[in-house]
Amino acid sequence: MSNLCMLQKFYREFFQLLASYAIPNVPQCKRPAGDDSDKPVTCTQMRPAQSITSAAKLRDEKIRQYKEKQDLEKRIFSPGALDAVGVDEEVQRENSLSLVRYWAFVGVSEVDLLCDEINLLASRESAAGVTETPSPEPPRPPLLISREAVRSTVFGAGYPSLPTMTLDQFYDFQVKKGMFPAPPANASSVVKAYPGEVQRIDPSEELAA
User: Fold this and answer.
1) 203 and 188 Cβ atoms separated by less than 8 Å
2) In angstroms, rounded to a whole number, what is the distance separating the alpha carbons of residues 68 and 104?
3) SS3 190
4) Which of 91, 102, 129, 208 could make an S-S bridge to 72, C-beta 3.0–4.6 Å?
């Protein structure tokens, strides 16, 4: 926004210089009376009230300015128009005035675009300043606990992971991986003496016997 306001200010100074030099046949960028020069001018301030008659007049004026701008562009940017040597002073003066008039037409169109963009940014800033009230959250459904879920929690294992192998299978698996040492082949650390009883015997005692 600050850059746009600065550009608008520069164009105002340009048109003020054109008015001070009283260059003929130059389009003027009209400003409302009593307007502050440091204040950005929006489109509603720069343009008259739009009606059918004013819109038709504005259209005809735009067409006339466009045709005149095209004629000036052909005259100025033709080869050797401005840098010709030995040209009469009156021709040089007319070429210089044509160049000033051309950039005046460009400035009028640029000021209109600047006003449109400033007006758009101002409307966005005003819309962003309005805080929207948050919409209420939708009611959540009630939490239902089924009888099967409670029964599986009470009478089940109590955790989702169940064992997939026995301790002997786990030990053999670790021995195959090399994590645990292999048990001696001729040693029996557990011998069943009686049904339902387990007696532990030291292998060194068997060797001594």
Assistant:
1) yes
2) 11
3) strand
4) 102
Q: Map out the domains of the chain as residue ranges.
A: 2-128
Each residue of 127-143: pLDDT tens digit? 766 555 667 888 888 87
> Could you tell me how many residues make up the chain?
209
Three-state secondary-structure class, residue 119: helix
pLDDT tens figures, 31-60: 543 344 455 444 444 444 456 777 777 778
| Cα 201 off chain centre by | 79
Q: Cα–Cα distance between 186 and 96 in angstroms, integer? A: 117
- Largest alpha-carbon pair distance within the chain? 139
Phi, psi of 198 (to 5 degrees): -125, 130
Q: How far is CA 107 from the centre of its chain?
A: 31
Residue 15: CA count within 13 A, CB half-sphere: 20
Contact of 8 with 41, CB cutoff 8 Å: yes
Residue indicated by tokens 């001070």: 20
The CA-atom distances, in angstroms, between 171 and each of 179, 182, 187 are 9, 9, 17
